[in-house]
Amino acid sequence: MFYWLMKYVVIGPVIKAVFRPWMVGRRNIPAEGAAILASNHLSFSDSIFLPLMIDRRMAFLAKSDYFTGKGLKGWATRMFFQATGQLPIDRSGGKASEASLNTGLGVLGRGELLGIYPEGTRSPDGTLYRGRTGIARMALEARVPVVPVVMVDTGAVMPIGQRLPRVGRVGIVIGEPLDFSRFEGMEGDRYVLRSVTDEIMVALQRLGEQRYEDVYASTVKDRLASAQAAKAPSSRH
């Protein structure tokens, strides 16, 4: 009830009036049953516009830090993420990754839509980067289709590091569902998982015509951080 109230009464109408989001390919989202919506990731706002623009309820896996803030700001952030269908996950790896997988499978097991960013983090420069294989494992274990989604101009409206959005139009392009039933029972094969993940990334690249680089976005971010640290003036005298 809280989700729908925020979507159609409190948050949704305001965001639609200000940013006038458009969508192409709405018919490609299954009217019922579980599916994974695999999206490129340009901005924090991606997780707001996509759930807002589709008719069905969906959930995104969001880093747990957004749910653990203190004080009024922490409470407001937590309420906002819950209202937009975000589910907290620990992205530290190991057992945390397994827990994240189980959280996603739980959503799919209920016949709902699950949003995933295959790149694992926001693109630092608008390039589409190599996908993480967790999405493939979820798709094969849950036996659900994967729907490619391309967010358009959300990075311009709310760039990384900016607290308040700029006013501008954003768009969403929904591609045709990808069927991986031919790999049923092979979710334990890492070569199959990589093949499925790469197929998803190819679909995203073709749909959005983004420049693609076969390296993890997190690796690029680490390189950029190291380069910035090297350029920073030394505090030593």
From TrEMBL:
Family matches, as Pfam families: Acyltransferase
Organism superkingdom: Bacteria
Record domain Phospholipid/glycerol acyltransferase: where: 35-154
Key word Acyltransferase present: yes
Assigned keywords, A-Z: Acyltransferase, Transferase
InterPro entries the record matches: Plipid/glycerol_acylTrfase (IPR002123)
Keyword match Transferase: yes
A molecular function GO annotation: acyltransferase activity
Protein name (database record): Lysophospholipid acyltransferase family protein
Origin species: Microbacterium galbum
